[in-house]
Design brief:
- The chain is α+β, with helices and mostly antiparallel strands.
- The protein is 44% helix and 13% strand.
- Helix 1 packs across helix 2.
- The chain is globular and about 40 Å long.
- The N and C termini lie far apart (31 Å).
């Protein structure tokens, strides 16, 4: 659907695909690629950058720190 921007909000993100770390890593890589795709003017209508953000909500700072590490690890595996 055409829009000026997109936002995905995931509540209780530490529980996201909690039974499969590999599936969670795959999801993080897909979301990362989507963010990068929309941030690039190449291939976009009129060469316009479209904000695409993903907000992962955590209840505790420790959960957020672990989530950041896991996301960084997932992205590092791409290269």
């Amino acid at each position: 659907m055409p829009a000026d921007g997109y936002l995905i909000v995931v509540e209780n993100a530490p529980q996201l695909l909690s039974s499969s770390a590999e599936d969670r890593h795959t999801l993080f890589r897909i979301l990362y690629q989507a963010v990068r795709h929309w941030a690039s003017p190449l291939g976009q209508p009129d060469g316009k950058v479209v904000p695409f953000k993903v907000l992962l909500l955590c209840d505790r700072d420790e959960e957020a720190a672990l989530m950041r590490q896991e996301i960084a690890h997932s992205i590092d595996k791409m290269w």
